[in-house]
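Slack export, channel: ligand-projects

TW: morning all. Re-posting the request from yesterday since it got buried. We need the structure predicted with the small molecule present, not the apo form. The ligand is zinc ion; the SMILES is in the block with the sequence. No rush, but it would help planning for next week.
GE: picking it up
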Amino acid sequence: MRATDDRYRSEQGRFDLAIRMIGHEARTGTIRYWTGLSDDRIRKLYAAYFKFKPDGVKRRRGKSPTQITPLVDSPLRTLESGVLANLLHGGGLFSAQPDGGPRLRNNIQLGHRFCDCYETYRSVVAAPSLSFEWGWNLLTNIRRGEELGVTRCGQCKSMYLRDLLCLPAPDCPVCRSVAVSSPGQLN
Ligand SMILES: [Zn+2]
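GE: finished. pasting the full token output, ligand included:
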């Protein structure tokens, strides 16, 4: 009986995570990665829960984005992607160790935590511009550690993302935006 309950719970957990991710317009390949559900099951879930909703969730096709430049192409965007990176770091979704962090494939608990981080990012940034898939791209690139790196400013101690192949390294976006937008003294 216990084994059946556990199997049911894990099956239900996978469905719940898939539905949560479909609601964020995640691509089928991303949902398959996190949940282990087949493309056919994911299509059926989408059809059952979202297809005929009037405020329609879109089903995104094709591959997830893989580029990193749009994540760090201006100080403002770098600040914004840094918010999500900080949340993901706090949530334990990546680490500075060479292995990149815990295993994510078929990890229902961390899949929900990734959704928590993404939803928090959407709620704390005034005009969020990163789709769920761009958030996923951000995390996978940080974990890969080849092009996108996390760095901490020696001055203000902010943690932010940077293109590791860009030399010289760009200045901290926080310090730069303070220098640009400082409103001066209030007397
Ligand atoms: Zn700084």
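GE: first-pass observations. The longest helix spans residues 2-23. The helical segments are 2-23, 28-35, 39-49, 75-90, 108-124, 132-144, 173-181.
TW: perfect, thank you
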